[in-house]
Amino acid sequence: MPAITVRVNGLEVTKEVGARTLLSTFIREQLKLTGTHVGCDTSQCGACVVTLDGKTVKSCAVFAWEADGADIGTIEGLADGDKMHPMQEAFREHHGLQCGFCTPGMVMTAVSLVENNPDIDEDGIRHGLEGNICRCTGYQNIIDAVKTGAKAMRG
Amino acid sequence: MYDFGIKNPTSIDDVKAALGDAEDGQFLAGGQTLIPVLKQRLAMPSDLISLSRVDGLSGITAGGDSISIKAMTRHAEVAANADIKSAIPALAKLAGGIGDPHVRNRGTIGGSVANNDPAADYPAAVLGLGATVITNEREIDADNFFTGMFDTALNEGELITEISFPIPEAVGYIKFPNPATRYALVGVMVAKFGNTVRVAVTGAGPCVFRVPEMEQALTASFSPDSIKDGLVPADDLNNDIHASREYRAHLIGVLARRAVAEANG
Ligand SMILES: Cc1cc2nc3c(=O)[nH]c(=O)nc-3n(C[C@H](O)[C@H](O)[C@H](O)COP(=O)(O)OP(=O)(O)OC[C@H]3O[C@@H](n4cnc5c(N)ncnc54)[C@H](O)[C@@H]3O)c2cc1C
Ligand code: FES
Ligand code: FES
Question: Which ipTM was obtained for this model?
Fold first, then answer.
């Protein structure tokens, strides 16, 4: 089994992983960071989105060993202690979730969209969320949340 | 997933050696197609030969009359590249319309072209622009590369290293995306080089194809009105839950006209 060293939310860890271990499995079962959700395990839903060297990826479609040496960001890394990230706060304010299953992937994606394009408009948000499926909200409140979150992130 | 060994070569020579050492090795590029295939146990390679750490297999080089994209270049990089945006804007647009941001951050041009999914976008660009597929063994013209559904002219173990796209005078790409996956229900690329026009259609048939009747009509007059309905018969087109073959035949004409309009600015 290969040993990999990654930095997860700023902390370095070294662990042995199997060849078939997905990044999502590594994060949830070996690191016990269960905020990253597995909705479909078939690359469709985006619940498992994390950042890999700053870019959003579906962690169910990356092998853990491919991440050796990389920086990984998960939903647990967003809040500052008890203070939620502005995007998380905006999802709460706008009721951008119901069951919450899609939410970690939605929030990780939204933060990345705004970081890459601080002035993102509604069209950009809608296209940017094409890889994230929500079965509850009907999306409208998610779009509203991302708009507010973007504004708050711009400061 | 069946179990497999892992090889992480760092040079193109090492890739060859790794392949030689493996009983039945398979390249892993962005994994956006291969990992789901492995999960479904539709492939059982003895080893995955990861291309991610191979030196010199990623990047974009713009020359005077062509742009070369290395095999491991991710879709997101092609979509954002300034040289491609200005010289072959439809190619940047095509890459930016693949799947979703997460797929574009991992998926690569080499993986997409090697896979030759009947509904994939890049094959339309490679064939429509008459690109050259460069491998560790030879150079293959687009017209000889795509040989059938999920089938290409690549030999067993042959590695795509880069794809060279000639810069056209005018170009347009329009697709009707499947609303769930964004794969092309039908996608049409039209490119004009002096007196030559190429039209390539993806998503509609079992493999990307050219439409000589449209090419001739557009060579005579490069305008949307030159494209008459019914130039591509429905008989051999795909017929599935997403669209009937008649609807796909209709879309080819509509999208081709829009692609010409886009090319004309
Ligand atoms: C949700 C989703 C939506 C998608 N939507 C679209 C879409 O709208 N349009 C579209 O075109 N595609 C779409 N795709 C497919 C995506 O573009 C893939 O990235 C692409 O088809 C395969 O590229 P890859 O780098 O991930 O290759 P991999 O999955 O790693 O490999 C694919 C195949 O190519 C072989 N291979 C890889 N690199 C090379 C090489 N350099 N030389 C020789 N053989 C090689 C591998 O061995 C494997 O057989 C989608 C995928 C997903 C998961
Ligand atoms: S669990 Fe990864 S995309 Fe659904
Ligand atoms: S809140 Fe339930 S899936 Fe999105």
Answer: 0.97
* Of residues B6, B181, B182, nearest to A19 (C-beta): B6
Q: Which is nearest to A42 in space by CA: B262, B35, B189, B75?
A: B35
From A26, A38, A102, the mutation candidate for ligand 2 (largest count of ligand atoms within 8 A of CB) is A38
Homologous superfamily (CATH) for A3-76: Beta-grasp domain (3.10.20.30)
For the whole model, what pTM was predicted? 0.97
Class for the domain spanning B170-263: alpha beta
Going by CATH, does the domain composed of B60-166 fall within 3.30.465.10?
Answer: yes
The CATH 1.10.150.120 portion of chain A extends over 86-154
The whole-angstrom distance between A83's CA and the closest CA on chain B is 27
Question: Phi then psi for A59, rounded to 5 degrees?
Answer: -70, -10
Tell me the average confidence (pLDDT) per consecutive run of 10 residues in chain A, 155 residues long: 94 98 98 98 97 98 98 98 97 97 98 97 97 97 98 94
